[in-house]
From TrEMBL:
PROSITE patterns: HD_GYP, RESPONSE_REGULATORY. It comes from the Bacteria. The gene is rpfG_2. The modification 4-aspartylphosphate is found at D51. It is an enzyme of class 3 (hydrolase). This is Cyclic di-GMP phosphodiesterase response regulator RpfG. The keyword Hydrolase applies. SUPFAM superfamilies: CheY-like, HD-domain/PDEase-like. The keyword NAD does not apply. Residues 144-341 form the HD-GYP domain.
Length: 342
């Protein structure tokens, strides 16, 4: 396909230029400023030859208005057609890349137009390639994120394999945690990471014997000590990766059973020494556990769950996080209802 050249000039200037260029280029013409802007929008020429005498109806400069109003025109080379006595600075001042002096010389016109047409087409090809590459990168990024999500789901599912409701629980709980992180003014990136990291909080249970996990009665002292090691196992599994997502997951897995008053495990740390992410997940996890039906318990009403958790404010839970949670309860209930409808 021949490059498209838009000639914006009087007919007396268009005719000789068209004769010079018609064998190598497709020609479009415009006789005034408004038609020049219209043709630029509609035809998207490779090069524009613009007579410096062409003006808009209000007296405005065509090239200046074109650059301001038509974003894609930034990539179109404009060559001014100047009378022999006109100074080339006139072209530069109005956004043109070069100029042609009248009367026109065939070889000079063809050489200049060919140079800028080739440059324009090359730039457009590069832009198409860049746009295509950007689309490909977005698609591959989406595929990678989906694969990552599936991996996290499988890890979390392995940690609580014997829980018949885990598939719903882990993502519902992580949605609660993300909503609480937003309320706590965490950054968007942190909220997104938490939503993906929270489901891995119990991955360490994969290392706990079934005889303990499935025991119907109360665990004895030795069994309880073994059970508590799931926090260490989970941490060690997730710390194998340097990815910030799994680093956050390791922190949550390690500390989500710590208590605000220091009576939790495995370290017995308290207050702000506990990671904020673990404190958020602790609230979300307990609320979800209380308000979901399990083989060994009925679903608690939300009001009862919130009341019981409130009694543990300052002992089990970070008071600030619990207060924020109560403040976003309408959002929490919307999330809960959305999962019921799935």
């Amino acid at each position: 396909m021949k490059p498209l050249v838009l000639i914006a000039a009087a007919l007396t200037e268009i005719r000789p230029l068209a004769r010079i260029l018609e064998k190598q280029f497709e020609i479009a013409i415009a006789l005034d400023g408004e038609k020049t802007l219209f043709a630029t929008r509609q035809r998207k020429p490779d090069v524009i030859l613009l007579d410096e005498k062409i003006r808009l109806a209000d007296g405005g400069m065509v090239c200046t208005r074109m650059r301001d109003e038509i974003p894609e025109s930034q990539e179109i080379p404009v060559l001014f057609l100047l009378d022999s006595g006109a100074h080339r600075s006139l072209a530069r001042e109005q956004g043109a890349v070069d100029y042609l002096h009248k009367p026109f010389e065939n070889e000079e016109v063809i050489s200049r137009v060919q140079t800028f047409a080739s440059l324009s087409q090359m730039q457009r090809a590069q832009k198409r390639y860049s746009d295509s590459l950007e689309v490909t990168v977005r698609e591959r990024t989406r595929a990678l994120e989906e694969s990552r999500r599936e991996t996290i789901y499988m890890l979390a599912r392995a940690g609580e394999f014997n829980d018949t409701d885990t598939g719903v629980h882990i993502w519902r709980m992580s949605a609660y945690a993300q909503a609480l992180a937003v309320a706590a003014k965490a950054s968007q990136r942190e909220c997104d990471l938490l939503q993906m990291a929270a489901p891995m909080h119990d991955i360490g249970k994969i290392g706990i014997p079934d005889s303990i996990l499935k025991k119907p009665g109360k665990l004895n002292a030795d069994e309880w000590q073994s059970m508590k090691t799931h926090t260490l196992i989970g941490r060690d599994i997730l710390l194998e990766s340097q990815d910030p997502l799994f680093q956050m997951g390791a922190l949550i897995a390690h500390q989500h059973h710590e208590r605000w008053d220091g009576q939790g495990y495995p370290q017995g740390i308290q207050g702000d020494a506990i990671s904020v992410w673990a404190r958020i997940v602790s609230v979300a996890d307990v609320f979800d556990a209380l308000t979901m039906k399990r083989p060994y318990k009925e679903e608690w009403p939300v009001e009862k769950a919130v009341e019981v958790m409130h009694k543990d404010s300052g002992s089990h839970f970070d008071p600030k996080m619990l207060e924020l949670f109560r403040g976003i309860l309408p959002e929490i209930l919307r999330i809960k209802e959305a999962f019921v409808q799935r």
